[in-house]
Amino acid sequence: MIRQLQLLLIGLLLFATSCKKATVQNGSSDSHLDSMVMLSRRDDIDREKRVAYADTLFNAVSDNRNDSLTRYYMREAVVSYYNLDEYDKSIHASKKVYDFGKRANDTLSMAKGLHFTGVSYYGKANNDSALYYYKDAEDLYVKFKGAEARSVGETILYKAYVYYDAGLFAMCESEAFKAQKYLRIDNKATDLYNCYNLIASSLDGQDDNDEAIKYYEMAFDVIDDFEKEGFSGGQIALNKASCFNNMGGVYVKMGQNKKAIEIYNQALTMPGVKEQSGLYAKLLNNLATAKYKSGDNSQLPELFYESLAIREELEKEAGIIASNVSLGEYFLYKKDTVKAISYLTTAYAKAKANKSNSDILSSLKLLTAIDKVNNDYYMRRYIKVNDSLQKIAQNTRDKFARIEFDTARITDEKEALAKKNSFIIGVSIVVVLFIAAIFIIYYLNSKNKELLLVQEQQKANEEIYELMFEQQGKIESARTEEKSRIAMELHDGILNNIYAVRLNLEFINKKADEESVLMRKGYIKELQSIESEIRGVSHDLSRNALFNQEQSFESMLGFMITSQKNTFDTEFEADIDPSIDWELMTNICKVNVYRIIQEALQNINKYSGASHAKVTVSHKDNNVIVTVADNGVGFVPEKAKGGIGLRNLKKRADALQGILQIKSQPGKGAVVEFSFPV
C-alpha cells in the first residue's frame, strides 16, 4: 500500500513541478510543444497515442539548441513518460536532462535530471539505482543555493520510501524527519501529510504503536488543508478514509479492537469510499478482522467474502492474498481447520506466484501451526524463506550502506580534485599578479601620495570656506542687531527729544520776556545733550566698522574667540600678533590652528568655570606660538590624556609638526600651548 501511495505521490509531484513554467532565456514558449505536452497527458486519448505525443515532444527538443527552454520541455517529456509507466524512456530522457544541464553549467537542471532518474528507477522497482540517484540529486540540491527547499525535501522523502520498502524502518524514520524540516518551509499540506504518514508507517514497522498513532493523527489533521491546493471534497474524504485505515491497523496490533472497529466504520461512511473498490475492500477485510478479534461475530464471515469478491473482480493479487490469509486466520479462530488450511494454502500458492515474501512467511507460519500432516514441510519452507529474507535484508542494508559510502567517496574525490586544480590555478594567478603588482604598486604609491596631498588641500580649502561662511553669518546677524538697536535709539530717544525741543522753541520764540529767555537757554542745553547722544551713536557706528570690512583669517580668529559664551559668563580676550602673515600659510595649516583654538575654548566652556580666558597668538624665531589660558578650576593632565578632545589636539599639533604642551593644576587654571614652524 505504501509503495502504491508513493508512486501516486511521485506522479502528482512531478506533474505539479511540470506545471511551473521555467524562466527561459527568450521569455517565451513554443505553442506546438505545449500542445504535445497537453496531448500526452489527456486521459481520454488512447495510451499508445499519448506515448507517441511524448516521443514527438522529446525528439523535437533533443536536437535543439541547449537553452533553458529546451531543458524545460525535456523535463516535461520525462513527466509524460513517467505518468505513462514508460520508465525506460523516462530514464533515458532524465539522463539527457542531466547531460544538457551539465553542458550548460545549469546545476538545477542537473539535480532535476538525477531526481527524475531516481524516480523512474523506483517506478521499475529498482530501488538500488533509485537510491543512488536520489542521493546524488540531494547532494546537488543542497550545494545549489538557488534550489527550492521543497525540491530537497521531496528527494529526501523519496529516499525514505526506498528504505521503507527495504524494511529499514529506522532509516526511513530518520530520512522522513529530515525531509520534514525542508518541506515545512513551504508548509504545503500534502507535503506534511506524506511526511507524517510515512513517519507513522515506519514507527508502525518498529512496533512503536503509540508514536505511530500520534503521527497518523497529525497526518489526519492536515488533510482538510488539501482544499487550498485544489483537492475536491471527495478526494479529501478518500484521504481521510485511507488514514483511518492505517490507524485501525495499529489499534488492532495494540489489541484495541473496539477502537479499530469504530475507526473502520467511520472510514466506510466517508463519501465516495464505496466507489473506490480497492480501498473499500481493504476496509471491509480489516473491519472483519477487528470484529472477530474483539469477539464480535456479527456480519462474519460475510464481510471477508465480500472483500475477497471485490478483489477477485479487480484482479488485485496482493489484495486476494491478504483476504485469503485473513479468512485462514478467521477459520483458525473458529477452529474450522479444514477451511483454514484451504484458504491459507491458496494464499501461500498465490504469494509464491506473486513473489510476496511477507505473505509467504505469514501463510507458512499459520500452516505450520495447523496442518499436522504437512507440518515438517511447511516448517522447513518457513525456515528457508525466513533465512533467505534475512540474508536479502542484510544484503540490502549492506548495499545501501555501500551506495551511501561510494556516493560520499566519489563526492569527496571530486571535491579534492577540484581543490587541487583550483590550488594550482590559484598559485599561478597569484605569481603572475604578484609580479605585476610590484610594478603597479610603485606607480600607484607615487600617484596616491600626490592625490592625497591634493585631497587634503581641497578639504582644507573647503573647511576655510565653511568657516568664512559661518563667521560671515554671525557678523550679518550682529550687524542686523546693531542696526535695530541704533534705529531704536534714534527713534525712541533722539528724534523724540528733538521733536519736543522744536515744539517748545516754537512756542517760546513768540515771547520776549525774561522767563522765556531762560527757558530758551535750557532748551539749548538740551540740544547740546542731544548732540552728545548723536555723537555716541556715531561712535558706536565707527566702532562696528568691522562689519563693513572684508574678513581676514586674523579677524575670523578674533571674532571666534571673543564671541564665545558659556554658563560661567567667562570674559574672553584675544591677543593676535598682527605681524603674522597668514596668507603665506596653507589652508591645511590655518584649519588646524583654528580647530586647536576652537577645541581648547570648548573645553573652557564645558569644564573650567573660569571668569577670564585669554588666547595669545605670537610669532617668534620662525615659529607661531598659540597660548590658551584660563583662571578656572584646572585639572590633572595625566588623568585626562585618554579624552577624545585632547587626543584630537595632539593629532592636529602633529599634523603641523608642532609641539603641544598642557599645564594645569586643580584650582590654578589651565594653559594649553602649542607652537609650530612656518
From TrEMBL:
Q: Which SUPFAM superfamilies did the record assign?
A: ATPase domain of HSP90 chaperone/DNA topoisomerase II/histidine kinase, TPR-like
Give the signal peptide range. Answer: 1-22
Catalysed transformations (reactions): ATP + protein L-histidine = ADP + protein N-phospho-L-histidine
Q: Which residues form the Histidine kinase domain?
A: 593-678
- Recite the UniProt keywords alphabetically: ATP-binding, Kinase, Membrane, Nucleotide-binding, Signal, TPR repeat, Transferase, Transmembrane, Transmembrane helix, Two-component regulatory system
- InterPro entries of this UniProt entry? HATPase_C_sf, HATPase_dom, His_kinase_dom, Sensor_HK_TwoCompSys, Sig_transdc_His_kin-like_C, TPR-like_helical_dom_sf, TPR_rpt
PANTHER family for the chain: NITRATE/NITRITE SENSOR PROTEIN NARX-RELATED (PTHR24421), NITRATE_NITRITE SENSOR PROTEIN NARQ (PTHR24421:SF10)
What protein name does the entry list? histidine kinase
The opening ranks of the lineage are:
Bacteria, Pseudomonadati, Bacteroidota, Flavobacteriia, Flavobacteriales
